[in-house]
Specification:
This protein is an alpha/beta fold and about 290 residues long. The chain has two domains: about 5-165, NAD(P)-binding Rossmann-like Domain (Rossmann fold); about 175-290, N-(1-d-carboxylethyl)-l-norvaline Dehydrogenase, domain 2 (Orthogonal Bundle). The chain has helices at about 10-25, 35-45, 55-60, 75-85, 105-110, 145-155, 170-195, 200-225, 225-230, 230-235, 240-250, 255-275, 280-290; strands at about 5-10, 25-30, 50, 65, 90-95, 115-120, 140-145, 160-165. It has an eight-stranded mixed beta sheet, with helices on both faces. β4, α4 (about 75-85) and β5 (about 90-95) form a beta-alpha-beta unit. The protein starts with a strand and ends with a helix.
Length: about 290
């Protein structure tokens, strides 16, 4: 029999966990949220009627407790539950923040619980899903051995891979995720702005760029970043780079700084590819200097 679980904080991540943990055979023990309506909605996803706006009432009978509130309230909520003796002595308490470590759950240890964090490396933009958002992704875990072991089994049952990260380095892990997700949007915005300046409507621009984006990601997966790198920097095409800088500086000067910064870092990748001479590397670096 799978363990029982409680969700405290019934937003996007909490709802997804509620539904897909239940589908994986875990037993819903209770749902709590600041909004009773949100708690009721999460419970309904599992067929449960055990919902409340008092977190300690939802957690008391759970083997595993997920605190999926906003980051700024996780510690406060945990402390309140612990003060009410709302954690079972042998339970596992997990939060799902990508930026915070398990140490913010220390008060749960006063009840005899094990603590950890379990962060699905996924963007949860929806309340309801037509497919399992955990399937095929990576979930990071850290914390007490019992908690990380439990989180690893949960990740596997949800269809996710699992990696264990160092507690003291978790903020770097989160920074990596921000770069891959949020800053990818920034880079695409730069690309679309340049396309727009060239007279291409944004919808057409994205539709045209998407195969290029998908192809690049596919090549990185197959060959690694240095060998997947193409374009003027990789081939040492100084004339094309000069043309880019001149036109961007003339028509969209507010984008020039970002383009140059990205170019400088791209030179370092091109060096690893081994296709450029030292002379070409220095010449290209000089073009991109801020």
């Amino acid at each position: 029999m799978k363990p029982s679980f409680a969700i405290v904080g019934c937003g996007r991540v909490g709802n997804a966990l509620a539904r897909y943990l239940t589908e994986a055979g875990y037993i819903p023990a209770g749902f709590a949220s600041k909004s009773l309506t949100s708690a009721k909605r999460a419970a309904a996803l599992t067929g449960s009627f055990n919902f409340t706006d008092k977190a300690w009432e939802a957690t008391l009978k759970a083997d595993i407790v997920f605190i999926t509130t906003p980051d700024g309230t996780i510690k406060e909520v945990c402390d309140i539950i612990a003060a009410k003796k709302g954690f079972r002595p042998d339970s596992v308490v997990l939060h799902c923040s990508g930026a915070l470590t398990s140490t913010i759950l220390l008060s749960a240890k006063d009840c005899g619980a094990s603590i950890g964090s379990m962060h699905p490396l996924q963007s949860f933009a929806l309340i309801e899903y037509s497919h399992n958002p955990f399937s095929g992704i990576i979930t990071s875990v850290e914390g007490d051995n019992k908690a990380t072991n439990a989180a690893g089994l949960i990740a596997a049952d949800l269809g996710s891979g699992c990696v264990t990260i160092k507690t003291e380095a978790k903020i770097l892990y989160h920074a990596s995720a921000v770069v891959a997700s949020n800053y990818l949007a920034t880079i695409l915005n730069l690309s679309l702005n340049l396309m727009r300046e060239a007279g291409v409507p944004e919808d057409d621009a994205f539709r045209g760029l998407k195969p290029l984006i998908d192809g690049t990601l596919s090549n990185i997966g197959k060959m690694g970043i240095p060998d997947a790198l193409t374009g003027p920097v990789a081939r040492g095409d100084i004339q094309t780079i000069e043309n880019h800088l001149r036109e961007i500086g003339s028509k969209t000067p507010h984008l020039l700084h970002l383009y140059k910064v990205l170019g400088l870092y791209t030179v370092e990748i091109a060096k690893k590819k081994g296709t450029l001479s030292d002379t070409a590397i220095e010449a290209i670096k000089n073009l991109f200097m801020i």
